[in-house]
## 1
Amino acid sequence: MSEGKKRRVHPADFKAKVGLEAVRGVKTVTEIAQEYGVHPVLVGQWKKEILENAGALFDVKRGPKPVDESSPEDKLYSEIGKLKMQVDWLKKKLGGMSPAERARWIEQKDDMPLTLQCELAGIPRSSVYRRLDAALRQECLDEEDGQLRALIDEEYTQRPFYGSRRMVVFLRGRDYCVNRKRVQRLMREMGLAGMAPGPATSKPHPKHKVYPYLLRGVAVTRPNQVWSTDLTYIRLARGFAYLVAIIDWYSRKVLAWRISNSMDASFCVDCLEDALRHHGRPEVFNSDQGSQFTSDAFTGVLKREGVAISMDGRGRALDNIFVERLWRNVKYEDVYLKGYASMAELMVGLAQYFAFYNAARPHQALGYETPDHVYRIGVGGGALIVDKFDDANQERKKDGNTGQRRAAAEVETDTA
């Protein structure tokens, strides 16, 4: 049970000032109430009292004012008696509450001293001090976790192949005393995992079907031939958010995007539905093996539209390189520069950035044209993921396949 809000007592001169402001009639009652921080009803009451009692100022009757017969001591004892009766009534009504419930009444920022609060609540001070110390330690820990998340995010954006072990080395180099378990927890909460092959990285949901990768060595020659998606972490002043985007491989155009405060599948499905509604449907849709994209809700939409489903291979860092480059651009060109404080600010800022990214930002891989222009005319784009581990591709590379050499260079310099 929380302690009730204390009633404000306004001095007479304050009431007169507010009431006279209302009598002038220059401002509305609501404006006056907002200006002085009082309820509009009080403003009306004080105005009424001034108007009703104004005639008494000019009363011709003179003489001494009636004296209150009760002495100050009598008034004081009467007030003490009322307070004692109220305290006894509260103790009687709340006597059945447990100490844990009464301990929640204690507030460190309250005007009443902690010692008196504990005495009235009937609980030992030591238990309150322990709870306050634990809360303070947790607050400090949460603040340090926020700093660690920011450092991990920046380093992972530069080096997405870093796992928890390398992140521990990096953070210790920044004078943070952390162990691997803590870094693993933070990276797991942020949805980050090293892109290099390893045990239990990018683990799909055990009950979800994983589809094969269909784009290795396939030339993307037209818009809406291949779409792909991915999730990334966005740090805020207090907490963090997740961003999902869908990109057209041929033109690099961001077709749809959504943000969420949790890594659920619903906002990913909403993003997919939005892209399909405004841009038609692709021939192939590629994603990683995350549980959001292997879920029945997400793949069910693709099956309904007759879209071929492709998923990155384990440990294949280049299979979805275009979205990874998009995240790098978003963070270094917008998020890190502006330092968004809230979800609302992030929503407005990303809307402005993606409008710039699609319509005004030139891309080297597109001949310095914009994604909107290339997507609209269907000329000047293209993509090809070279399988560097495939023997056949290696032979073609040795034979001087210029198309694959151009594509490999394009992947390395895309969106620079």
## 2
Amino acid sequence: MTDGAETEHETASAKGLEQRIITETGVDARVAGIIEPVLESIGFRLVRVRLSGLNGLTLQIMTERNDGTMTVEDCELVSRTLSPVLDVEDPIDRHYHLEVSSPGIDRPLVRKSDFVTWTGHVVKIDTSAVLEGRKKFRGRIAEVSADAVTVESDQASYGDKPVVEVPFEMIADARLVLTDDLIRDALRRDKDLREGRIPEETDAAAGEANASAAEQEQTKQD
């Protein structure tokens, strides 16, 4: 394989790690399609979009910088950037509140790289179809391959397999479980990122969590 081919293969592999495997449907998907390229243009990546009935109607956009950090100022920047775009595209036909937030410590895992980054920590996974007789799994992330994540149960139940390989294509939802170990590691990682001890280009292929839970709300007017 030539050097050029190797570089192309590495780039494709990195994109595979960074492409979201858990995406939205309906209105949420329309919003995601509008804002994702805008976020990328200013150095952020989309984690999740969710429209809920909170406070009348709230559009929650969960995002983070490519290095995994997210500050209050970042939330304000994203909100200011996306508001006029959403006003023009107008994907929601009612008044709503725009809420921009970081993923938080017990974050959703939406990219393969998220599972790689948080290997060893406890995750809850819902699948889109029955797997090994059930659709809900909880346990430590033991291993991540190109096609699946292996979960070792931390709360073994009678009749359930203690170790299950869950194909990425079957994952409907996944989220880290808040534990003392996760809090410690997330805070340490966030500090290392901010102090430059973890190169940004490495994190862009790995996916990070952020201890900040800052939120910025803005009301959208007709």
## 3
Amino acid sequence: MRQELMSLPKTLAEDVAKNLVMVARLLDAEPEEAYAYSRVALRLASRVAAVREAAGFASYVTERYSEALTEFRASRRMTGSAELWPVMADCERGLGRPERALEMAGAPEVKQLDKAGQIEMRLVAAGARSDMEQFEAAVVTLECAELGSNAVQPWTARLRYAYADALIGAGRADEAREWFAKAAEADQNGSTNAAERLAEIDGIEFVDALDPDVEVEDGVKATAEVVDEAGDDEDDSEFAEGEGEDYYDDDDEEDEEEGFASPAAE
């Protein structure tokens, strides 16, 4: 990304970088704010692949799937990389086109993905099968060597969880319980709610002891103390947005010919 930004005038590059930092910082906790920052970066430098990718993920997490797909396609065209292929396919699912996602799962681009990307593509394909209520097919899609491997990878918990969920859809609850347990065992960073799903199958109900409306065992309602943590007074809600200049206006016609609408100015 740094090399891409170096192609911009210095002040413009700094403004773009600041907004991209905020997108990354807020994407999980405040996705709508991250989306707003991404649109600023997009207005400033729409011909930078990293900006299009960031804008794509901000749109994706806020369920603006059509926008996300446009941005991911633009980034892919600029870089030539297939890295975003699985999330592009998942956007097709979000747009209610699981058949298209399955077509992408069988495309040559999948062979260009690393192992993590191929697993991600498998998860998307299984999700598309479930969208179409083809649960047994979803189960088969997820059956691979990596599913039963003893080695725990960053995607292991999610793969096992998806497999258990597909088994539930297929009416195979006993097998699903086993795989929810395996998913919970592999989930070291809370990427799934496998433990809760396992407890649900076992008839165990979790309650929040800090919820004032929940009665604890001694019959006394729990109370929750709200602590107002002091923070600095600096309001970073607005970075200098700059005048993005029409730095890449001469490329707009090319984008339109290839089906990528140029983003509207904020």
## 4
Amino acid sequence: MKVLLFFLLLSILIIPAAVFSLPQQQTTVETPITNLPLIATFEGGQRYQAGIYPVIVLSGSYHEMGRQYGGLMKTELNDEYSYLINTVTSQGITKEEIMKSAREVPAYYPERIKEIFTGMSETTGRTYDDIAFLYYGPIFLLLASSNSEPVPASCSYLAAWGNYTKSGSPVVSRNWDLVDTIMPLTEWYVLTIFRPTDGSNSVATWSPAGARPETFMNNKGLFITDDNCGREDNAPEIRPEFITEYYRFMFDYSDLNALEAAINGTAPDVGWIVDVAGPDEAFVLEKSTDRTVKRTGDGVIAAANHFVDPSWNLPDPPEHSLSRYNNLLRQAEEAKGMIDAEKMMEIRDVCIENGGSKFCHSELGGGKYSSNHQIVYEPQNQTLWMNVMDKDWQKVELSPLFEN
């Protein structure tokens, strides 16, 4: 159990990735719901291609969607699994130890997630424990590959709306910043659309195949992601893992007020900075294990890896976090009234060495860090731009993909 707790403490860091490998029934037929080329189908699920990134659309029960995920991404999931297990075991951690921890990971997960895992297992040839290992694969990789404690540099957020944007509607962005040890996972990123038939919302996630997502959008125009809070804050008792609760938030809540209430009412297992947006505004929730503080802005808000609200009465934040936070606000101020998706991508593409917020294989704490993936999103029209480090931005219209 101590091994599991160490993994979960490391969950302040995580990652995603994808590749151009074709599954199952290949076809060149155009989909009737999007202009993306249809590459394959499996049991009611479809796989499209957006540039170099797979886009999978899953429909049905959670078990059925898990089967479709496994069938459409079988090659990527198995390749990623082989890479992770070989890398981790090469560092002296036995497969038995890995699987023992993997079995403990889903113990407190919602039934929906367990059903997805079960379905993925049935169509990939992997065990349920293997699928759970993939879900936390990036954490296992960080633990196995790090010779020292990782620097808590993990993600940043910038949202603009009102008189900061051309349209007045929100334009939100996030960088997922991690040590370059994680860079190999950028080979397996996938944009996944879940369209459950139980009446829940449609949900999109962006992550490495099978890995725990930290970037979520739904068909009601809601958006949620997170940043490392930069402080050790562990719950005094066992609680469900907070980031996996994002599935519940996105499946079950359809307006910003209800989403905020749900987040406020969920005590996390560790402290987090939670970034939230909807069709009309955006805000940040600074969440410790026993308190939540909301931060808003007059058309702009940013977050990095420290709690900003002065009521926390904390020591000065680390320079890497404060500089990224200040750089984002300065860049937004310089672009005030001109921010659209294109301008936001320009802001996000400035390396920290040049006055921006992006880690570009940057030196930090004796290692190299990068913005493993980035997104820019317009909640009102549900348009997403996404990339992984060292690759181009890719635009995807989510609205037609969300439709059941």
